[in-house]
Q: What sequence folds into this?
């Protein structure tokens, strides 16, 4: 297993055998860096997240190529974080909806963990689970681990 992981972390393009489930976490940087080009000298504005459908579809195709068509591909939703830059509630919810739609269209699992990281009011991210506005801390990581465990366990039963 260690050798497989080391090979995967390199530029190895060989297929990786005997993997049953792949969980993919994407979107945070896509949301942050996605901008609509409005021309030279003009300020970029947040673009239509729908144009990320093709890259997500290509990611699924690549995963199926490298891990085999029988692998269960699961996408994790983006978790909430402090609004800054282009991180807004609308962008997070929009991306998660897009991701859910892509998963439905391409027969992938969608693990929605968003609500587990909201505060008790449900209106903001739970600061107690984050080391900083972007990264989970020692309290947040076990929450995410449990989401993964419960989701994958449900697949096996």
A:
């Amino acid at each position: 297993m260690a050798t497989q992981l080391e090979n995967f972390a390199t530029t190895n393009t060989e297929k990786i055998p005997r993997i049953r489930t792949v969980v993919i976490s994407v979107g945070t940087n896509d949301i942050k860096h996605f901008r609509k080009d409005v021309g030279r000298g003009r300020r970029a504005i947040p673009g239509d997240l729908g144009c990320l459908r093709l890259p997500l579809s290509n990611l699924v195709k690549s995963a199926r190529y490298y891990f085999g068509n029988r692998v269960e591909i699961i996408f994790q939703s983006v978790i909430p974080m402090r609004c800054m830059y282009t991180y807004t509630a609308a962008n997070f919810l929009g991306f998660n909806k897009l991701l859910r739609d892509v998963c439905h269209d391409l027969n992938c699992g969608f693990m929605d963990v968003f609500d587990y990281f909201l505060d008790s009011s449900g209106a903001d991210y739970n600061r107690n689970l984050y080391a900083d506005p972007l990264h989970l801390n020692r309290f947040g990581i076990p929450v995410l681990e449990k989401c993964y465990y419960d989701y994958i366990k449900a697949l096996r039963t």
In short: The first helix runs from residue 2 to 8. The chain has five helices and three strands. Helices lie at 2-8, 28-33, 53-67, 89-105, 140-156. The radius of gyration is 17 Å.
